[in-house]
Design the sequence.
């Protein structure tokens, strides 16, 4: 047990204060810059005091980047990807843990090994499939029958293209598997004796028990998907499907133009608020899902 003394408490609070200041300082700089005029934001040295042009800068950022559409698309993308990842992860972990098969552990490790393949590594083959979904089937039919089928179907500039390639996640499967393994076997046996099938056991028993874990995972997945830039940048060529992160580049001052970083920072502040609100609302379940030991 660690003994608490006035000196150790003071050192602890000092470290926490430094860490808090380090985290909040960039947000304060962005906030101050978003409220200043063009002359103030480019002044040297930079003023760490808020200005009086907040409404003007926010209005300009909202109109220039069409942030209403971009935020809606990001909400759709983040919501669908989060829900899809949780559903796929829970079902795959349920199959690995409760359906006894000699190949179950092999499949789990194959899924787990994909953690070493981030999106940036597999982006080219994934994009190739999304840009021509029927290509594998055409090649298979041509190989078997020798016939060429001229049917094309792509997921570019669609919500399906933004979400479906990101749905599978090894992290969620691993977390659900670890939790399902802590559920007593007697609970499954009791459900089986009561006549519950696998699906009813999964829906009525396992999912309610996994609520805290699902909310903790949803917090991470929503923030991670919201911050995706590379995949939406590849999949979207129509401005109507721009996400918040891809819209942010529109706010960047162009070469040989006015360095209106006040508008850019105002747009960045608008874009970062939704995930911050989600994390703030779900932080209680997020912490509980990480530290809870009783199942």
Sequence:
């Amino acid at each position: 047990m660690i003994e608490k003394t006035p000196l150790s408490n003071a050192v602890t609070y000092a470290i926490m204060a430094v860490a808090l200041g380090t985290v909040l300082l960039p947000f304060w700089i962005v906030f101050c810059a978003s409220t200043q005029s063009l002359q103030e934001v480019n002044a040297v040295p930079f003023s760490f005091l808020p200005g009086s042009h907040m409404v003007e800068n926010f209005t300009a950022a909202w109109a220039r980047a069409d942030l209403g559409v971009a935020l809606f698309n990001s909400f759709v993308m983040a919501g669908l990807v989060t829900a899809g990842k949780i559903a796929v992860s829970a079902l795959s972990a349920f199959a690995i843990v409760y359906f006894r098969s000699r190949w179950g552990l092999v499949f789990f490790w194959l899924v787990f090994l994909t953690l070493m393949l981030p999106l940036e590594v597999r982006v080219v083959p994934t994009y190739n499939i999304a840009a021509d979904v029927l290509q594998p089937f055409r090649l298979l039919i041509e190989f078997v029958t020798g016939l060429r089928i001229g049917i094309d179907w792509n997921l570019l500039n669609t919500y399906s293209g933004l979400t479906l390639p990101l749905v599978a996640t090894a992290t969620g499967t691993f977390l659900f598997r670890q939790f399902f393994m802590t559920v007593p076997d007697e609970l499954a046996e009791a459900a089986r004796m009561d006549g519950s099938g696998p699906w009813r056991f999964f829906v009525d028993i396992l999912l309610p028990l996994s609520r805290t874990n699902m909310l903790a995972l949803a917090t991470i997945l929503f923030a991670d998907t919201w911050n995706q830039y590379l995949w939406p940048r590849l999949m979207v060529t129509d401005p109507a499907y721009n996400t918040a992160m891809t819209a942010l580049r529109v706010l960047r001052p162009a070469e040989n133009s006015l360095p209106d970083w006040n508008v850019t920072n105002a747009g960045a502040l608008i874009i970062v608020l939704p995930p911050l609100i989600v994390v703030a609302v779900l932080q209680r379940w997020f912490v509980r899902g990480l530290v809870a030991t009783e199942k």
Notes: The mean pLDDT is 85.
